[in-house]
């Protein structure tokens, strides 16, 4: 059925995947207050938790992408790690803990002939360059009312390297 569906919709961008939270899942496990407190007070526990969640998603998407190969054009991921004003974690720490995981996930998309898309609400401007550097092709959603997320400025700065999908106040 997937092959027939994919063949019927070759004129469309066919997207597979979805919510694959790493930061948000860690916060779900601990609760937001304890999770954020642990980032500062017990970083080893948070780093290990994040690594385990990342390992799970890596294996999940490796199998999922293999099954989707040839039927879909975009492999989509999602996580929320920003507020309306900034990231919920220091960008340096985000780069240390999350960049290796997201790079592996984006690589899985590319290894299976798909573009990579990431849903991330809020003010993520501080790390858009990092996301591009590790292989992100599509950023969804551009929350235009968040700090630093002006669509015109984003297009001017990053538009040669990144497709922006969506642009609304969520």
**General shape:** globular
Largest pleated sheet: 5 strands, parallel
Number of DSSP strand runs: 5
Radius of gyration over C-alpha positions, nearest whole angstrom: 16 Å
- The number of helical runs is 7
Give the termini separation: 34 Å
Mean pLDDT: 95
The fraction of residues in strands falls at 5-15%
User: Which segments are poorly predicted (pLDDT under 50) over 5 or more consecutive residues?
Assistant: none
Structural class: alpha/beta
Along the chain, the helix and strand elements come as: HEHHHEHEHEHE
Enumerate the strands of the largest sheet in spatial order, edge to edge or round the barrel: 1-2-3-4-5
Helical content band: 40-55%
Can you offer a commentary on this structure?
The mean pLDDT is 95. Helix 3 (32-41) packs across helix 4. The chain has a five-stranded parallel beta sheet with strand order 1-2-3-4-5. 35% of the residues are buried. Strand 2, helix 5 (91-111) and strand 3 (115-119) form a beta-alpha-beta unit. The chain is of the alpha/beta class and 170 residues long. The chain has helices spanning 2-8, 23-30, 32-41, 43-68, 91-111, 125-133, 151-158; strands at 15-17, 74-78, 115-119, 138-140, 163-165. The protein is built from seven helices and five strands.
